[in-house]
Amino acid sequence: MMTSVDTDLIRALADPLRLRIVTLLAQETLCTSHLVEETGARQTNLSNHLKVLREAGVVETEPCGRFTYYRLRPDVIEALAGQFADLARTARATAGANLKRSCP
Known about the structure:
The chain has 104 residues and is α+β, with helices and mostly antiparallel strands. It contains 5 helices and 3 strands. It has a 3-stranded antiparallel beta sheet with strand order 1-3-2.
């Protein structure tokens, strides 16, 4: 069984600040102002990182007056975790088979 992992999603989560944002949003829905306060990052920097997370499908937005709130999409994180679990199962299953390609 060959499994691939969503590389765009991995790239979106690979940045330390984006991972911090995701961790915060796992706990509660927050607006940019809250994220600035929690992370110490500049608003424009956060907005760029949130755009990457939105485009990767990791977060969704909810307009509220003049603010935009961000919410984590747990289904996306669960799907990624499932892809890694599949990779681990594949590696475990083939580890005992001693599968090696011969060198040319």
